[in-house]
Structure formats: structure tokens, C-alpha cells
Amino acid sequence: MGRVKTTGYGWTGSVLPPLGLVGGAVLGAAVGTALGAEDVLMPPAAGILVAELLAAATMFLIGLAKNSTRTPEGRRVWTNTHKYGRYGVQWSGVTIALAFATLPFAVTVGKLTQRELIWAGLVVAFAAAAGISRLIYVKTCADAIDP
């Protein structure tokens, strides 16, 4: 099995998504219990969803602060000094967090609407995660990685 090397703040890409997974589930279950929710699956799924979205936003902001500089013309120049694997944390960390958020999003959609719509929620979540990931890669990492 391969090892992923991190540099600088790249370690956040391997810490924040699993932390959001565990912490979000625990916090969601606690809030659901405090509110008297009878459903055992919805509160943890919603907690994970919120925690993973917060983790993705945090990692993008870390990448923005550490892997980009503003030129006098106002344009951002991206580097991959702080990376997880060979990719900047602004892309790799966000992609991992969004991947962790796909199933909780689908469960939340299924619980809030109809159970049969869980598959539609899963398709939407995968499409959104892939689209956001690709957009961030093209705008931030592609120039630093691709020749």
C-alpha cells in the first residue's frame, strides 16, 4: 500500500475529513437526542454532512492562505507548497471531504423527501463533488502540476 507524503499544512487533508466524519456523527446524534428525534439515522447523517462541508471550506481557506499569493494586478498565483500527496491541500483536502459528504447528503435527501430519492441524492452529490473538485483543480492546481 502506498504512502501519502504531506508538506506544510498538507496534513490537514488527512485529519479534517475523518475528524468531520466522527465528530459530525457524534455531534449530530447528540443534537438529535437533545431535540428528541426518533430517527436514529438522520441526525448523524446531517451532522456528518455539515461537518464535512465545514472541513472542505476550512481546507480550501488553508490552501488559499498558504498556497496562493496575490500579484500587484490582483491575480492569484497558486503553488503547491502545502500539499497532500502531490496535490495542493486546497484541492486534495476538499475532494476528500466532499467524497465523505456524498453518502450523508443522499441519506439526508432521502429522509427529508422520500426514501426512493436517496439514489437521486447520491447522483447529485457525486456530480456536485466531481464538478467542484474539477473546478478547484483547474483554477488552483493545474498550472503548478501540469506542464
Provide a short characterization of the protein structure.
The chain has 147 residues and is mostly helical.
How are the elements arranged and paired?
Blueprint: E1 6-7, H1 12-34, H2 42-66, E2 68-70, E3 76-78, E4 83-84, E5 87-88, H3 89-112, H4 118-145
Antiparallel strand pairs: 1-4, 2-3, 4-5
Helix pairs in contact: 1-2, 1-3, 2-3, 3-4
Q: How would you characterize the overall build of this protein?
A:
It is a single chain. The protein is mainly alpha-helical and 147 residues long. Helix content is 68%, strand content 8%. The chain contains four helices and five strands; from the N terminus they run βααββββαα. The chain has helices at 12-34, 42-66, 89-112, 118-145, and strands at residues 6-7, 68-70, 76-78, 83-84, 87-88. The strands form two sheets. The protein has a three-stranded antiparallel β-sheet with strand order 1-4-5. A two-stranded antiparallel ribbon has the order 2-3. Strand 4 and strand 5 (87-88) form a beta hairpin. Helix 1 packs parallel to helix 3. The longest helix has 28 residues, at 118-145. The radius of gyration is 17 Å and the shape is elongated.
